[in-house]
């Protein structure tokens, strides 16, 4: 009877233990993907998916775990840091906890939590997540290994330093202004268009550059209509000739004075209305 109870206790204890996923010691690999717009440092985790760090220009660092086989139950996921076996400690640090939805396969934190996880990884500790899996109906642990990190970390850090300064959100809406009765681009407008063109050359997801031109309501339609067209084409010509952007990306619209950005009753308002708006679309 005692043997049976002991065996039952052992089985129950094992069933309560979290199933653990991590890359094997002999085959841990970090992969770095570098571009001017995004950087990633990821590790494949057999039987689970992959995890790692990711940052896009203009955004904060992210720590992400993606699974193809272990969707979550509706509960919560804990982001933790565990000491390495050789660090002579059993203290696990909790970084944060987040709610999970049934079937969720992506678990992500960003900003300071992700930065802390990366710093702990560099100190030899293991960032991990723990949540209740639909596949096992019990908790699982998914762990990032520090093995061979130093082979890939310098390239990832260099990529972070070289990220393009302008994000899509910052550059996707641009306005340039024109003098009264003119369709010429001044130095400030050209500088702004240079920034936009430099970004477009890097981002393959841009499918259209929309140029919308406007006038104030000073003058007659027969004057303002060709003036509005000329302003749109001044921007288009600059992007084509100075930066050789593909002509098929550019679409031109002329609104004359039909869509004012400000009141035409003041000098300042009319100055704001003599404009071309450039919008990037994905």
What would your notes on this structure say?
The chain has 282 residues and is an alpha+beta fold. It folds into 2 domains: 19-162, Immunoglobulin-like; 168-281, 2-Layer Sandwich (60s Ribosomal Protein L30, Chain: A). Helix content is 32%, strand content 32%. It has helices at 2-16, 112-122, 149-161, 168-171, 187-202, 221-243, 267-273; strands spanning 19-22, 30-34, 38-45, 49-56, 62-67, 72-82, 93-99, 106-110, 126-133, 138-143, 173-177, 208-213, 250-254, 275-281. The strands form 3 sheets. The protein has a 5-stranded mixed beta sheet. The radius of gyration is 28 Å and the shape is elongated.
Task: Kindly summarize this structure in a few lines.
Helix content is 32%, strand content 32%. It is α+β, with helices and mostly antiparallel strands and 282 residues long.
Write out key terms for the chains shown.
282 residues; elongated; alpha+beta; 14 strands; 5-stranded mixed sheet; single chain; 2 domains; 60s Ribosomal Protein L30, Chain: A; Immunoglobulin-like; 7 helices; 32% strand; 5-stranded antiparallel sheet
């Amino acid at each position: 009877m005692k043997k049976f109870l002991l065996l039952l206790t052992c089985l129950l204890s094992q069933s309560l233990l979290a199933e653990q996923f991590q890359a094997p010691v002999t085959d841990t690999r970090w992969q770095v993907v570098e571009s001017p717009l995004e950087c990633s440092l990821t590790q494949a985790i057999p039987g689970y998916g992959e995890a790692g760090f990711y940052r896009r220009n203009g955004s904060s660092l992210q720590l992400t775990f993606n699974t193809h086989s272990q969707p979550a139950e509706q509960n919560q996921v804990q982001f933790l840091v565990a000491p390495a076996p050789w660090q002579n400690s059993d203290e696990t640090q909790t970084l944060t906890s987040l709610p999970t939805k049934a079937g969720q396969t992506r678990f992500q934190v960003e900003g300071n939590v992700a930065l802390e996880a990366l710093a702990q990884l560099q100190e030899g500790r293991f960032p991990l997540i723990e949540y209740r899996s639909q596949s096992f109906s019990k908790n699982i642990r998914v762990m990032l290994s520090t093995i061979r990190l130093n082979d890939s970390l310098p390239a990832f850090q260099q990529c972070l330093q070289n990220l393009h300064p302008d994000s899509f959100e910052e550059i996707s809406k641009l306005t340039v202004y024109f003098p009264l009765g003119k369709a010429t681009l001044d130095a400030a407008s050209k500088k702004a268009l240079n920034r936009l063109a430099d970004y477009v050359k890097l981002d393959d997801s841009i499918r259209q550059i929309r140029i919308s031109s406007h006038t104030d309501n000073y003058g007659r339609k027969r004057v303002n209509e060709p003036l509005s067209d000329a302003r749109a084409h001044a921007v288009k010509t600059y992007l084509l000739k100075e930066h050789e952007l593909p002509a098929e990306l550019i679409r031109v619209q002329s609104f004359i004075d039909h869509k004012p950005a400000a009141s035409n009753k003041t000098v300042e308002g009319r100055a704001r209305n003599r404009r071309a708006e450039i919008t990037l679309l994905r």
